[in-house]
């Protein structure tokens, strides 16, 4: 799924006359905790102060609660990383909808499901950040000019598409520094 995201990011950058992103550099491998008695298990954060070596079971059920597919992963594997193996076992059932918890709510999983003609249903995520700050819904997108308008009617132009696939739009700080809402941005 990530290779497809890289291709689409570079297509978007090309459309905006930006250079392709170079492949991400692999950082130094982190030392992982490994159990001496069960090396296949993973270091799992069970709560704020409790950590154990464990396994994580991913289970897909039908609307009646019957298990259709499952995978067992090391405890340190995130739900979104375990999804491809679980989906491969679930695909023969030809689901129309997949209802999943927030661990699976990633852009790559959503796009993957939509491309397969499956409707993803994820939980609502509350906006993060300070309460009185401006939110994305406060800005208006102009599809024709590919820009945003802020509440003060100033233009935010496209700057780049990040490695994660997000488009960044920025305003001219010289124009905006004296506006009344500028304190709500930081």
Automatic annotation (TrEMBL):
Residues covered by region (Disordered): 19-41
Q: Which residues form the Transposase IS4-like domain?
A: 38-134
- Under the GO molecular function aspect, what terms does this record hold? DNA binding; transposase activity
Protein name, per record: Transposase IS4-like domain-containing protein
The cross-references to PANTHER family, in alphabetical order and at most eight, read: TRANSPOSASE (PTHR33408), TRANSPOSASE DDE DOMAIN-CONTAINING PROTEIN (PTHR33408:SF2)
Q: Name one GO biological process term.
A: DNA transposition
Its domain of life? Answer: Bacteria
């Amino acid at each position: 799924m990530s290779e497809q995201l890289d291709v689409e990011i570079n297509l978007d950058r090309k459309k905006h006359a930006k250079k392709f992103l170079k492949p991400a550099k692999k950082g130094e491998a982190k030392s992982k905790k490994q159990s001496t008695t069960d090396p296949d298990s993973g270091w799992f954060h069970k709560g704020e102060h409790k950590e154990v070596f464990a396994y994580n079971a991913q289970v897909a059920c039908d609307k009646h609660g019957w298990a259709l597919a499952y995978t067992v992963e090391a405890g340190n594997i995130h739900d979104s990383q375990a999804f491809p193996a679980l989906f491969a076992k679930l695909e023969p059932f030809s689901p129309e909808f997949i209802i999943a918890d927030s661990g699976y709510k990633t852009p790559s999983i959503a796009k993957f499901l939509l491309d397969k003609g499956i409707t993803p249903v994820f939980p609502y995520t509350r906006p993060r950040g300070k309460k009185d700050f401006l939110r994305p819904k406060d800005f208006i997108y102009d599809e024709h000019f590919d820009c945003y308008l802020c509440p003060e009617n100033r233009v935010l132009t496209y700057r780049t598409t990040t490695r994660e696939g997000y488009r960044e739009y920025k305003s001219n700080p010289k124009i905006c520094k004296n506006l009344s809402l500028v304190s709500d941005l930081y």
